[in-house]
Each structure stands twice: as structure tokens, then as C-alpha cells.
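Re: the 567-residue chain
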Amino acid sequence: MKIRLLSEQLAAKIAAGEVVERPASVVKELVENSLDAGATRVVVEIRGGGVDLVRVADNGTGMQSEEVELAFQRYATSKLASTADLESISTLGFRGEALPSIAAVSRVRLVTRPKDRDQGWEIALQWGRVQSKGPQGCPPGTSISVSDLFENVPARRKFLRSAAAEAGRINELVSRYAMAYPEVGFQLTMEGRDVLKSSGSGRTEEPLTSVYGAEVAKQMLEVLWEETSGGNRVEGYISPPSLHRSNRRHVTLFVNRRWVQSHMLSVALEESYHGLLPQGRYPLSVLNITVPYGEVDVNVHPTKREVRFRHGDRVFSAVQRAARGALMTSSPVPQVHLQPSVDVPSFQPSLLPSRSSLTRGQAEPSTDPADSRGSGEVAPVLRVLGQAGNTYVVAEGPDGIFLLDQHAAHERVLYEKVISEMSRGEPSVQALLEPVAVELPPAYLELAEEGRQEMEGYGFLLEPFGGNTYLLRGVPSIFHDSDPAKGLLEVLEMVFRDSSLKGRREALAASIACHGAVRAGMGLSHEEMTEMVALLETAENPHTCPHGRPTMLHLSSQQLERQFGRR
């Protein structure tokens, strides 16, 4: 094939692919332009998940009429003047690619007016080509409408997720910038419904409440830490050890008020909670790390999501010390003393008989087809001795001592119960006396909207109530007296996180079982422990919970004798 220059139109489409990945990319670039323009109010409107329409309007400085068409040329920017400016970037946008990239794959209409002009200017483009332009009456500021995104690039459009999922990403994005810029009033409207509003009062608590709800917001711990020399500063909010989530989606980090994804900063925050959170749980945070502009490189990715620090170790230490200091003030760090541990091998199921075989007085496993299990696993016959640490059931078996994780064991029992009910189409539902209004985080809207019928098959009775709010009228009966709204959110979090199980149905069942199971630290009566063990012995896969953790460990008689010097 001959080497040839790409056409201008094709080159523009390829360049757009680096900046505009999905509708949320459009919103990000336009919102950042509004903030760079000094706006104190930003209104975002979307339809069709942002594919049909994205409109961002602000009250910023606006553009002069002679600048409007130039703004849609590649590499046109008002934020850089020389190479030296790249060494100290103080604005969110600077590359001069956003507007031309968006215009290359959509229809765009821009209306703008500087505050010192009596008349504004309008320009309309289609697939990057100017269709019309001229004077236009409008309020001060800028309004940009982007419609029919990727209509001229159908291959790109087919890789987008559902409208609900794309809308969730946009909600998540605007929510984060509302928390980073509390002095700016944000409004987000989806399909004609207001889903987010902040007044721009300057108090971070307000957007924090709008995003996470009043109950979570009032528990958050304030972080305020500044380096004595070096200029690094960390401020914002983190959750106490008692408040945590099953994934990192609620860890929000800003560098110089730019939302970033940084593994290094995430690790620094998580290290601050070392010894305070259960395994596999993560904190909530809204932290802004202020670093001298010359000490951070934000020009390492076309979408500006990643940053590189000149002195990463100092920034890491700053985040860790700031968060740990806030945690220490509110909750002392527990002291852990490690003791030499006994080498306890995993239980070998093939060596022990099942309860069903012993009750018939048989030493050999039954050959009755009714006793066969799909997994080929057999649980041991156990006699409960007691409970250790309100977490582990201690039992005696045919060959030594068994320790059962009460949560994992009960979770396995409930999981098989939920799966059985679902397969029969007979979920056990606990109807609520009064419906509970639940405001869902943006990331879980798709699960609620597209999976409502599926969730009904497990006992959740949900109906839309406007915006991000749903009415919860019933929950799976195994939830008992627990908080129904909290239970729903925990289940959605687990389903969103868990990719080890095959498909969403199994993830839903596992999450429901996890929420309904007894917790570590809960005292159980001898009768309750005996009933749990008996139910576990009849399970098809008694040796692991549905997430793969072991339900029991075995310390054989030989090992006991060896440890006590009897052999």
C-alpha cells in the first residue's frame, strides 16, 4: 500500500477518538472550559444518555466574536502562550483539542457573549464544518449544545453502553466537580428532571450531602493538612473506619482541583486505613491535593485523567499523613500483637462422611442417587462446642477440630436458598409497611433501571420515583429486620464489584446472601450455631462461600497431638 496523507476529515475523526470516548468526555471538556472561564454557575442538560443532546451553559467570561470560529480550530487555546507555560499549567484545559474534537463527531451550536458586550455571537457546525454564524442575543457567558454524538462514526456509537449507564457516568462526573468546586453552583438535568443541584455557597458539606446523602455526609471526617515547607496541601473529607464500601468508586481525588485517577494516591489513602478496615473494604473520600504547578505534569494523557509528580514520594507521604492524622484524631489506631500461628491445612472433604450416611449407620458413603451432590463435595458431621471471638464456630468432627467462619458458612446456606427460590420463580418477599425512598448513586442507576425485573425475581420491589430516587416496597425475606435501604445499596455495590461469579444473577444471589448472613462479631446461641452447621452439611458446596472464601478450616487429631508433644 502507498503512503499517503490522511484527509483532513479523517484525521479529525481519529484525533477526536483520543479526546471524546463517550458522552461523559464531552461533558468533562465543556464543564472544565466553563470553570476555566471563571463561571460561578454551570448548568448541564442531557438527553438520551448524552448521545442525543449535551448542553452546558455558564455565566463565565464568554468569547469575543472574532474568537468564536477560531476556537474550533485544532490547537487553538487561550491558556498557553509559550513552551515555558507547559512547565506550570494552572488551568483545567490547555491542549486546544476539546472543541474541534467534539465538533468532528457531532452537531454543535455555540452561543456566547462577553460581559462587556451588548450582543452575543452564534456559530453552528456539523461534523466539524461551519454551517452558519452571526450575531445573536443572549445573556453573558457561553452555552454549547452538542447533539447526535457519533452519528457520523457508527462504529464508535455501537460500543457505547445503555443510555442509563452513560447518564450514570455523567452524573458521577458532574457530582465530583460539584464537590471540588463548592463555590460554583451546579445543576444537572437528565431527560427533563433535575438530579443534582448545588447553590455554590462555598461549603463543601452541601454538594457532599447532595451526592452521598445527609446521613453519610454528617459522618465524614474533615481533613486539613499543610506541609511546613514544599507547598503541598491536603484538604477535604474522608470516612471514619465505621463507614466503608466494597469498591474504590467512592474514592474521589483531585490534584489542584483536577479530578484524576492515580493508583499512587489511592494506595496512600488506603495505607492510612491499614488495620482499621475489614479486608476488601474501602473508604469514601473527597480530597484535593494542592501541589505547586511546576511540580506536577498534567500533560501525560489526551483526556488529562492522569498526572505525574516530580516528587511523588512527598505527595504520597502528604496524603498518608493527612488522612492518618484525621483518623487518629477521631479514632485511636488499635495495637495488634502477632503470635506464632499453627499450620492448619485446608479441609479435605473426601476423607469424611456426611451426616446422612452416619444417621443410617453406614460407614461408607451412600450410593443412593438422592444423596448425590452436584459438586461431589461432602460436609463433615460436626458437634458444636462453642464460639470464638463472636466470629468462628468451634466444632468437633470425626478427625479433630473444625473452625467455621460463621458469616461465610451462613452466606453459603442462604446463597443456595436464594438460588433455589429464584429457579422456582418463588422468591420470599418481605413487604414493607411503608415504602422507603432510596437515592441511588449514579454508578448503580443502570442496575436499577435495566435490572428491575431481574431484581424482582430475588425479592426487591422497586419503582422509579423521579431522578435518582426509587421507592423500595419489598425486600428479600432473609433481610429480616435490617435496614432495607442500606441492604439494597450494599447489594448493588457488591454486584457492581463482583466479577468472579458467572453473570449478574449469581452476583445478585451472592450479594443478597452476604447481606442477610450473620456478621462477624455477632454472638450466637448454641442452638443457632447447631442449626447453621446442620444446614451447611446439606449444602451442595459446603466448603466455600459464593465468593470463594473457605467456610471452615480443619485441625486434625494428629496435628493436635503433635503440637502438644503427644507424638
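The mean pLDDT is 81.
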